[in-house]
What we know:
The complex is a heterodimer.
Chain A: H1 3-6, H2 9-17, H3 19-27, H4 42-56, H5 62-84, H6 92-112, H7 117-126, H8 128-131, E1 136-144, H9 146-149, H10 153-166, E2 184-189, H11 190-197, H12 201-206, E3 213-219, E4 222-232, H13 243-267
Antiparallel strand pairs in A: 1-2, 1-4, 3-4
Helix pairs in contact in A: 2-3, 6-13
Chain B: E1 8-16, H1 22-25, H2 33-40, E2 45-46, E3 52-53, E4 61-64, H3 73-78, H4 82-85, H5 88-99, H6 101-117, H7 124-145, E5 152-154, E6 156-159, E7 170-174, H8 178-181, H9 195-209, E8 213-217, H10 240-249, E9 252-256, H11 296-299, H12 301-315, E10 323-326, E11 359-361, E12 371-372, E13 381-386, H13 391-399, E14 403-406, E15 412-418, H14 423-427, H15 432-440, E16 441-443, E17 447-448, E18 458-464, E19 472-482, E20 488-497, E21 532-538, E22 548-556, E23 559-560, H16 562-570, E24 581-582, E25 585-588, E26 591-593, H17 602-612, E27 617-621, E28 627-630, E29 633-634, E30 641-645, E31 654-665, E32 668-679, E33 683-687
Parallel strand pairs in B: 1-4, 4-5, 9-10, 17-26, 27-33
Antiparallel strand pairs in B: 1-13, 2-3, 6-7, 7-8, 11-12, 13-14, 14-25, 15-16, 15-18, 18-21, 19-20, 19-22, 22-25, 22-26, 23-24, 27-30, 28-29, 28-31, 31-32
Helix pairs in contact in B: 2-7, 5-6
Amino acid sequence: MLAGFCREPLVHFLAIGAGFFLLWHFLGDRRNAQSERILITPAHVERLLEQWTKTHLRPPSAEELAGLVEQEIDEEVLYREAVALGLDRDDLVIRRRLAVKMEFLTDDVADVATPTEEELHTFLRQHSGKFKVESLTTFAQVYINRSQRGERASAEAERVLALLNDKTSSDWQTLSDPLPLPSQYEAAAEADVARLFGREFPKRLSGLPVGGWSGPVESRYGLHLILVRERTAGRLPPLNEVRDAVMSEWRAAERLKLNANLRRQLRARYAVTVQWPDWAKDSVTLAAGVGAPGGSR
Amino acid sequence: VDRTYPTNVYWGDQHLHSSYSVDAGMVGDRLGPDDAFRFARGEQLRSSTGHLVQLERPYDWLVVSDHATYFGLSVGFAEANPAILSTPAGKKFAEDFKQGGKAAYDAFMQLTKDFATAQPSIPLEALAKLARPVWERSIDAAERNNKPGKFTAFIGFEWTQSIRGNNLHRVVVFRDGADRAKQVMPYSEFDSADPEDLWKYMAAYEAKTGGRILAIPHNSNLSGGLMFAPKTIRGKPIDKQYAQTRMRFERLVEAAQCKGASETNPTLSPQDHFANFEIWDKANIFGTIATTPEMFPYNYVRSALKLGLEQEAKLGVNPFKFGLIGGSDLHTSLSTTRAENFFGVGVVHEPKPERWKEYFIESPVSPRLSTYAWEFAPGGLGGVWARENTREAIWDAMERKEVYCTSGTRPVVRVFGGWDFTAKDLGSPDPVWVAQGYARGVPMGGDLTNPPRGKAPAFMIKALCDPDGAYLDRVQIIKGWLDANGQAQEKVIDVAWSGDRKPDPETGSVPMVGSTVDVKNATWTNTIGAPLLTGFWLDPDFDPALRAFYYVRVIEIPTPTWLAYDAKRFGVAMPDYVPMTVTNRAYTSPIWYSPATSGDRSAKTEQTNASADNRVHVRLVVPADAEVWFDGTKTSETGTTRDYVSPMLTPGRDYSYEIRVRWIENGQPVEQTRKVSVRAGTVTTVDFTKSPPG
């Protein structure tokens, strides 16, 4: 959304020259913004000149330059008057555009910041889920079809389990009821196990001991006796192994945080009341905790 | 063991809209393609209306298919794109949207009406200027989310032809990455409203980039009798050329989605007890022209497969020899196809108590042709049999039709057809029966031909319930054929079912399984049905002279509809005509039988292997020091016998390679070039140490 927008000189000016100023301006005391002073700086004149030159392929004459500055002053005056009259408020395009600009300014700030080693380590620890190397399980399963065996299924599972643990013979596969799924799995990731046996299954599998048949473990299909041959625990890799990924996630998170902070600070200046329709009163909560149903939370 | 056949079902949705679609982004969808992919990968998101939402189980792949018509215009207005606002029409739209209320509504309606006239209200040059950067963003989102081995994010768009409100829509799916896809723009009905021009665009893309691309039609049920008509949209009878081109690019059809299933209609299939499923047959998509029974044969998949046999008899090529896949077509960026987690077709239909009675389309013609939110299905899904989760492997499976359609749940279905299977083969454990299936027969999407004397096709089927869902009621084979008088026929055969129900001795059909649904609490139990059904069926009426197709339908036991969940969650009462239970189902791609046109026995092996192996194998016998070029590209293999394997190719299609070999003989360089014709699934040996035959 920013690509086209960034090419506009006005944005460059705001972002580079006055970004921090503008931030301060929004965050600062509102009354100061009501100043009647209009200041056209040398840099501002240079920029007008540059724009004009780009369009006309020659520099403006002194007269033309004066005209440009006149125009700029008029535009600024009209703009301020329009704002004072509140003309900007019910204009969806202006509203959206200004909001995007504010987001853009904070994004820019986040990109400049560089995290310390310590910050990256902490981020990795706190978001271990994002960077974890998945747990892998090598296992075999023998299936008991509960819907066919009915009430006797559990007893059958016990009987087969005893046989499995009793024997070292290799014909264990013949003890399984037919099931069109493999009987053995090599280093299967949790997502793969969930795809085949349902979303609860990886959790159940992770509770089983390594070596020796155990179970039965339940799935939609019925009961499974399981031999976990090997389990590579999920692990959190050291920072150096995943530095790039952590860095980019840190940046993304930092950007979100800055946006959220800014919005929170801005929001704090307003007394917000949201009048929810009845049906939403109990089911919806706003993340920032302002303007909760009825304004009471 | 390195298995060469597909070992996994990968689940996904080839048809989802994000805020980049004008009819999503302009009506409240705030989530872009990136969000759509992240959601499909299992991330928790906040929906456009502020609900926290997450998939119960992640998908394996997704196509974000935003409308090429007005591609990115929603983004253009949101960001006040100068290319759009500098046109008088664009400025007027922006002002109307700014004004809100009736002006904004009318502006939106104008844009949707443009879908029905294929005439843009905003100049095409301005639209193109806007679409380019938005298309690149859409591609970048797919690239960012594509994680080979874990999750496949396809690049795609929708060609949305709705002239006069008849739905001829196609989702276009790229096999390729950004480098190729960025060389073209999405093709829209503003470019051309003729599907044959879309195929030209696709052919041009393949020629220009060396990439691959396919199109998947949907909502034939709302096509006003046009989707599978034996006439082109210019009114000419279809011919061999048309049939070949259509089958080159449209290998699949979406048979279930949120705006109705397109398998068949009770009027077309009165003997089929399960035909009355998610039927939308009142009118075209905008509710402007009523659907009449004469249109039905051209609106539904089963009848189209039958028409395809008729056309094949006439043209020599079957124009409707497509496989079946499901899709959601939701416009919320959230692919939520399960009843218990349905987030609506558009953002206005996201969860809230009274959503069931809202209009979807208020017909300008008659209230009878209006459609309401309660008629929505949550949308279908696609199961893809592949060896690995990559763009290439999943796209190739689509291309060879080894995919199936479900009405939104995830049961696992496998079928093989062959000439010498026995019930005993079915009893052998996995993976033995699968290996046998591929070695001696063909999977879904395949072809059978040249039957050994006295043999009929035999089918081995195994179906497993959704590992997080409902048990199965029954497995059926749907057979369609062209009888001796050239009349197309169909038949539904119950092949396997749960419990000890006895088929009716007259009709052979198995009694209904019953229902455990507690509508008031929106619950059910798996105390009926079976987790696993296996079936073996030998066609008793097979006549080797008659063309036929066979596909498998798997029916789940009844479960609550999304409406039943809504009624329970929000405590609202709904009238009797709102359905409270549904029997979800899967339809596989068909297996076709065609009588051989020549007495060539070798055609059988060729065809049979083709479905299991879509590569060309070339073995060269050359002097040890020879250098070898394929189509001008030098190869690195050495030795006197060299084996080459092609990338995945289309079975049944002819390809050719120019092979150049150079070696030194008696101190003199010798060079030979031979052109070799090859077919997927075959091994061709070329001996350069002997002079060429003939």
